[in-house]
Amino acid sequence: MERHAKIYVAGHRGMVGSAVVRRLKASGYTNTLARTHAELDLLDQDAVFDFLAREKPEYIFLAAAKVGGIQANNTYRADFIYQNLMMEANLIHGAHLAGVQRLCFLGSSCIYPRDCPQPIREEYLLTGPLEQTNEPYAIAKIAGIKLCDSYSRQYGRQYFAVMPTNLYGPGDNYDLNNSHVLPALVRKVHEAKHRGDRELVVWGTGTPRREFLYVDDLANACVFLMERGYDGDLLNIGVGEDLTIRELAETVMAVIGFNGNIVFDSSKPDGTPRKLLSVDRIRALGWSATTKLDQGITQTYKEFSARNPVGSE
Length: 313
What we know:
By secondary structure, this protein is an alpha/beta fold. It contains 10 helices and 13 strands.
C-alpha cells in the first residue's frame, strides 16, 4: 500500500476498527477515511453506495459489526443477523460498484462448527452444526466470507476474510449485560476488589477453553496482509494456544490484585466447550502474534481503570 493511498476503515470507533486506525497511523499512512454512524448509517444501502462511489477508497478494512457476548447474541438474535448481513452486503457490493479492488473483511471464530476437531483449521467451515447461542451472528459472518469469495471469483476482486479468535484490548465493551468473557471479568474483578469482596462469581463451570488475541496484534495482521497483497482463502488469526475460563479468571485476578475465591455459577451457559484456532496458514506467511496474555490484560486494565476510576462505579 502506498502511504498516501485512501484507506476506509468501516467501524473505526469500535475496538477492532480503532486498532486498525492506530496501526495505519503508526505506519505512516496519511489518508485514512472514517465516518461515524451519525455521518453514515451502514444499514442504509443508498447512503453506503453513494459514499463509496464519491470517495472511491483504494483499500477497505471492514471492521463494522454488531457484536456482543453469549447473553446478547442469544437475546437479540434478529438484530445480530439482520444488522450484520446488511452492513457487510452494503459495503462489499458497494465497494465492488465503486471499483474498489482490495478489501479485508473481519469475521469471527464462531463461524466454525460447535464440536470441531481442535485446533480449528480453516477448511472445517460448514462441516457441522453451529453453537446455538450465537448461530444468527455466525451465519451473518459466514455470509460475509462467502460474499468476499464470490466477488473475488466472479469479478476478480481481491476481497479476503480473516477470522480472529476471541479479542480483547483498548476500546472493549465492559457492559456486564452484553460484553465478552474477558472484559466482563476485568470489570467484575475490578469492582470486587474495590468493594472488598471475598468471592468472584463467574458464569458457567470454568472448564471451557478459550484463546485470546490482543486487538492490536489483529490490526497488525490485517495491515500485514493488505501490505503484502494477500489474495487467498479465509485466514485464522490467533495465538495458537488456549486456557480454561478458570485460568483466565485467575490471570485477571493476578493482574488486578484481587485475592478472593472464584465461585462458578453453573446455571449460566458455558457456550462452546473449546475454540482454539489453527494458525499454521498465517504463520507460513510470516506473521505471529507477539503480545502475551498477562501483558495484554495489563494494558487493557490500564485503559479500563483510567476510564473507571475507583469510586466512580
